[in-house]
Write a structure and sequence with these properties.
single chain; alpha/beta; Rossmann fold; 4 strands; about 20% strand; elongated
Length: about 100
């Protein structure tokens, strides 16, 4: 895909995002490492984070890969793909735990 994009437009792709399933835990970290080694990833989108029990994977992935998380998916609709804001995300998780 990278070669094809480069043929279609010089310098493309401009950003390479990896989309990970947030329910996969440590296997998603290994997957991201492999893709990063092969093509060099610029950032991550994590989906299926509509439950707080799954939320911890975000921290593991960000810490392990030292790579920005741009968006998280919290549902099945396009509006459920939201820009990742670490402080807001932490507050949401803490609110669920302590309320």
């Amino acid at each position: 895909m990278i070669r094809v994009a480069g043929k279609a437009q010089e310098g493309a792709p401009h950003r390479k995002m990896l989309i990970l399933d947030g329910t996969q835990g440590s296997s998603s970290i290994n997957q991201a490492k492999a893709f990063n080694d092969m093509i060099g990833i610029d950032g991550i989108i994590i989906t299926k984070l509509d439950g707080t029990a799954k939320g911890g994977s975000v921290f593991s992935i960000a810490d392990e890969l030292k790579m920005p998380i741009f968006y998280i998916g919290t549902g099945e609709q396009p509006k459920d793909l939201i820009r990742f804001k670490a402080n807001a995300y932490i507050n949401t998780i803490l609110d669920e735990i302590f309320i």
